Amino acid sequence: MPTLLKIDYVELPGKELTRSKHFFANALGWSFTDYGPEYFAFNNAGLDGGMDGTKDAVDKPLVVLKADDLGAAQKQIEDAGGEITRPIFAFPGGKRFHFVEPGSGNEMAVWAELEDVR
Fold it and tell me: Are the C-beta atoms of 25 and 45 separated by less than 8 Å?
C-alpha cells in the first residue's frame, strides 16, 4: 500500500525577511516564529508555512508534503519517476528531501518529524 503524502507546509523564498514580515503582519494579520536570522514560520495563515532566506532556498514557493516513513516516501517518489534533487537532510524538528516531479518539473519536498524518521 502506498504511503499517503498530504500537503502540510508551504515554504516561500525570502530576500528581505523583515520587510516581508511587516507586510504579512499588516496586510494579512499573520504572526511569526523565528528560527534564526534567515528563516521564520508564519502563523494564522490557514496553512502552515515559512519564509526561507538562506542561500539554499528554492527560488519559488515550495510545497512540502508530510510522511510517516521518509524512506518509504522517497522510494515511492523515485519508483514513480520523481528525481531526488536534495537527498535526506536534517533540519530543526525533522528530516526531509526534495524532488522534481517529471511532468512539469515542479520541485517539492517531503518531511517527517524526528520520531517518524525511519
Answer: no
Helical H segments across 4-115, by residue range: 17-23, 70-79
3-state secondary structure (DSSP) of residue 64: strand
Cα separation values, 28 from 10, 22, 40, 48, Å: 16, 10, 16, 14
For domain 6-116, which architecture applies?
Roll (3.10)
Q: Buried b vs exposed e over 55-65: b needs ≥16 C-beta within 10 Å? A: eebbeeebebb
What are the per-10-residue average pLDDT scores of the chain (118 residues)?
83 94 94 94 93 91 94 94 96 92 94 72
pTM reported for the whole predicted model: 0.85
Q: Report residue 104: phi and psi, to 5°.
A: -125, 0
Within 8 A by CB and 6+ apart from 63, the residues are 7, 9, 10, 106, 108, 109
For residues 12-32, b (16+ Cβ closer than 10 Å) or e, as one string? Answer: bebeebeebbeebeeeeebeb
